[in-house]
Structure formats: C-alpha cells, structure tokens
Amino acid sequence: MAILKNAINALDPAPDKTKELTLACNLLFELAEQKHEIQEKFLKEQLRTAGTAENPSIPITSILAWHSETRAYVKSDAGSLVNTVTDAVRKFITGGSDAIISGVGELITGGLEAILGAGSGTESSMHSYFIVVEGLSIVRFDLTA
Known about the structure:
It is built from four helices and two strands, in the order ααααββ.
C-alpha cells in the first residue's frame, strides 16, 4: 500500500484531504471486490466438490439464492486534534504535576497524529457451513465473510 500512496503523492504532492480519502476508499473497495471474487470462487468450489473424497461435506441439488455485498469505509479524524488540545489545556489549568505531564503527553500525541496521520486497519475472514432440517428437506447454508 505504501508503493501506491507514494505513486499518488508523486502525481499530486499536495492532495487535499477529500481527494486523499476518496482515493483510499476507492482502493479499499477494489481490494474488497477482489476478496469477494476469491470468496465466491471458494464457495462455488466447495459446492461443486461436495460429497467427494476431497470434500466430504453434504452435496446440494440446486442453489435457491445467492447474496453478496461489498463495502469499504475510510475514516479521517482531523477534527479530533481540537478535542485533544482542549482536553490537554484543561489539564494544564487544573494544575498538579500529574495533570500537567498528562496534558503535555496528549499535546505531543495529538500533534504527531495530526502531522503524520493516525489510522488503523484490520482484516478477518470466516467461513461457516450449516446443515438444517426443514420439514422433509435438508438445507445447506454456507456463509463466508
């Protein structure tokens, strides 16, 4: 991802925040679509090979419904710097060595996050396979997220 960010910065060294967030969201959405394609391929393979020695899960006769969603979110906390500074100043005003030290730490942290940017990202995936008896039928549910 750093290579892509450097390429974007090379084209436009001073992008505005909206443009930067839009590019990041578009990138995340494209990655999410690729992840979706991989999961769909995995599920179709699981259904195709069901009941074989390779995949001893319960086979199906037909697919009644197929549902998929792709989402991407980007969050920027530029406004949180004001809250950080305000809280730090309040600690200065209340006095006391612990409050002043804590206030200085919050100012430094808030300043670094504003200059360098702060963010986090996580990725996780799961696959669940359920067999449900419904009347005289056996229903298979495959969930991948």
